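Now for our specimen.

. . .
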Amino acid sequence: MSAPGGSFGDLRDRTLSGLAMAVLGIGAVWAGGLVFTVLVCALCGVMVWELARMLDRDAPFGKAEASGFSAAVALLVFTLQLSGGWLLGAVALAVALLAWRFPRDRWLAAAYLALILFAGLGLIALRGVYGWDWVLWLVLIVIGSDVAGYFAGRIMGGPKLWPRVSPKKTWSGTVAGWVVAVGIGWGFMGVLGASAGLIALSVLVAMAGQAGDIAESAIKRHAGVKDSSNLIPGHGGFMDRFDAMIAAALMVLVLTELGLMGLVIDCHGTGC
């Protein structure tokens, strides 16, 4: 986000790449089941590959590819074969083993590896347990808060949120994202059969998404790169596009494990 009068030159690229990914994503979400699970695991594997390339730039060819492939396969197998604490523990072990392969920045790598893989679990659980409409709620919050922040930041400008890490982000864009999240949460109460608590959860999810955007910016700045990769022609990598989504999905997983997701459904119309 930039000051008023900032360029909208990147809007076309953002829109086109977003539409292309949206078509694939919507189809997978609608299909659910193994199709959705495989797509999520594949995306997580690609992002692990991007992370390995950024933090281990001197690695020989094949090392980052092996990390990404191993992460995708491990997440897929664990998701299909395990559940509950066993599943969480297995993914945590995979994170530790993958992080150990980094010659430096292992704690940083472990933190972002955990974000990627546990976010994958969150997305898969959200689709499998709650249904496609909850995934739509999550996606709209992430997209809505991002779009609101994009336009509010460029039109309104104002103080920067964290200029040392993400110089384009402003407080006006951040708050605009929260406002949009409130509206989406309110609008989905009837659709999802949820109580007013969904509004608060929507804001928490939007905040997590914004934090994920900043976290990826910090990693890229630390690694000295502009984009996580060039897999999306002219518009960076998948971490660049899904940084907010994976953080929001991780928040959903945390809210689910704490019982808050179920609470906003169970309390609908009961006044609890």
